[in-house]
Amino acid sequence: MTATDPTTIPAGRVALVTGASRGIGAEIATELLAAGYRVAGTSRSGRAPDGVLGVSADITDPEQVEAAFARVEEELGGVEVLVANAGITRDMLLMRMSDDDWDGVLATNLTGTFRMVRRATRRMMRARFGRIVLMSSVSAYVGSPGQVNYSASKAGLIGMARSVARELGGRGITCNVVAPGFISTDMTDELSDEVKDDYLARIPAKRFGETRDVAHAVRFLCSDAAGYVTGAVLPVDGGLGMGR
Ligand code: NAD
């Protein structure tokens, strides 16, 4: 009998990755492509890595979300795997955080993700199969000064994932969360050297994460090998949030 790699997938399964124009999302899209998925990547610009169907969609706009799904369904087929990765920060100390700072982050990270999940599961429920991965953050459970809005949104994703996992588990749909720590991307490049040094000192692995560290975890959670994993929060943080 030939051993097969359970993290590869039946050829042609359709995956949609949000925020795929750069950083972690681009790496996930590339990783899933290499694993044999047909991959669509949405972002506001519509840019996506080579081989990935790039679709322009702002997840804060319900009509753009609907149009994006219609395009992916037409060009690749029904979405079987959703990686809801798009997210933003708008850091500000609590006393100076405006309603706009709060609403903007919640609108993208939480409400936008909800909208993607609701739309994707419509078809997954009929197919009685689905894999959903939500991109949270270690900030969801350790907190982060200046990121009250961001941490709240990322904690909300954990509650969302666990509720989806309970509601749709009987339909063959899994819903899990990946919680990265400090990953080197445009998002973290913006931080000061002082903040970066402080993080590095607290990471047991003694290095910042790379986008591929996150992509490998996502690939596993999307695979048939992870069929009995649902409602889980998988930290990819070099141990930064350990013990929480
Ligand atoms: P990034 O800023 O490099 O990329 C974010 C992506 O999201 C971009 O493609 C952008 O176009 C897209 N996006 C943002 N708002 C959108 C909207 N309204 N509609 C559609 N697309 C939108 O960020 P990154 O570092 O690659 O982070 C990706 C995800 O991982 C985010 O959810 C982030 O919160 C999370 N995360 C990152 C880190 C880190 O250290 N980099 C740590 C924990 C969690």
From TrEMBL:
Q: What is its EC number?
A: 1.1.1.100
Q: In which pathway does it act?
A: Lipid metabolism; fatty acid biosynthesis
- Gene Ontology biological process terms, A to Z: fatty acid biosynthetic process
MF term (GO), any: NAD binding
Functional note: Catalyzes the NADPH-dependent reduction of beta-ketoacyl-ACP substrates to beta-hydroxyacyl-ACP products, the first reductive step in the elongation cycle of fatty acid biosynthesis.
Q: Which UniProt keywords apply?
A: Fatty acid biosynthesis, Fatty acid metabolism, Lipid biosynthesis, Lipid metabolism, NADP, Oxidoreductase
- Transmembrane stretches in the record are none
Give the multimer and partner information: Homotetramer.
Occurrences of domain Ketoreductase (ranges) = 13-186
Q: What is this protein called?
A: 3-oxoacyl-[acyl-carrier-protein] reductase
Positions bound to NADP(+): G19, A20, S21, R22, N85, Y150, S151, A152, S153, K154, I183
Residues in the signal sequence: none
What is this enzyme's catalytic activity, as reactions? a (3R)-hydroxyacyl-[ACP] + NADP(+) = a 3-oxoacyl-[ACP] + NADPH + H(+)
EC main class here is oxidoreductase
Q: Which organism is it from?
A: Propionibacterium freudenreichii subsp. shermanii (strain ATCC 9614 / DSM 4902 / CIP 103027 / NCIMB 8099 / CIRM-BIA1)
Q: Which InterPro entries match?
A: 3oxo_ACP_reduc (IPR011284), KR_dom (IPR057326), NAD(P)-bd_dom_sf (IPR036291), Sc_DH/Rdtase_CS (IPR020904), SDR (IPR050259), SDR_fam (IPR002347)
Return the PANTHER family for the record.
Answer: 3-OXOACYL-(ACYL-CARRIER-PROTEIN) REDUCTASE, 3-OXOACYL-[ACYL-CARRIER-PROTEIN] REDUCTASE FABG
Query: What family does this belong to?
Result: Belongs to the short-chain dehydrogenases/reductases (SDR) family.
Statement: the UniProt record of this protein carries the keyword Oxidoreductase: yes
Q: Where is the active site?
A: Y150 (proton acceptor)
PROSITE patterns, sorted? ADH_SHORT (PS00061)
Q: Does the keyword NADP apply?
A: yes
